[in-house]
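Continuing the batch. This is chain 6 of the set; chains 1 through 5 are on the previous pages. Same settings as before, nothing changed between runs. Recording input and output for traceability.
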Amino acid sequence: MKKRLLAALTGLAAGVLLLGAYLGALRYGLTLRPDLMIAAGAAFVFAGAVAVFALVAMDRPAFRSVRAALVLNEDPAKEYVFFFSGPDTLPIAARPDMSVGEMLVRFSDEFKTPPDKMTKSIVLTIKGSAKKPFASMTLQQLFAVLKPYNLDHVLLMDDKDGFIGYIPGKRAAKEFGGDKAIENVDKYIVQVIAKPSECAILRDLGGVTSDDTISESENAFQAQAKLWTNEKIQGLVLHRKLKPVGFISKVDVLRINAGLL
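Output for chain 6:
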């Protein structure tokens, strides 16, 4: 505000000075050529215009430099990552040689709590075996038990702890706990674990394949570049030393890079 006022007063003073010089010249009998006066007036107008533009340039807020890319496992980006382990998660493991009771026995006390009272989220890891395939009926029974609870993440792993794919828990509860539960369990879990190269089918459920992963130490711009390689990718699984540690959705990656934190 002070700069604008100063500019206005400077322009006014220049005009008064020019007018005073002209009147003084007439008073002392000096005759000024009209073309000289026009040229002088034009010069002052030009000088004033330059001063205004210079003021505007100096007063304009500087554009912020390009924001540094945010690393996915550091604040504030990591606030948008759903991590698979932590004090508020129940890590349930399922293997072909286990019954539903054996899968849940570790957290039997937690499941005595009514579903609407459970505050922890469930991370279900389904691990394949080279010796025995999964029974679709067993997995269907497992999802029937977990459906009323906070099933947030489902991980598919091979017998050597290699990551095969990921399914959002809410979608898993819907597809594997409904009318076509046995059929869907066989299609999206049993067959995918038996043949990991077919994991692209998980994208039909909003899931993630073994190709849709990124290191937790990479940044949000690198994550966005991965997402653009295939429009069906709805998120990425973060890994640490090739082990899955968390999930970030496509929407949240774009939100981070747009600065909407």
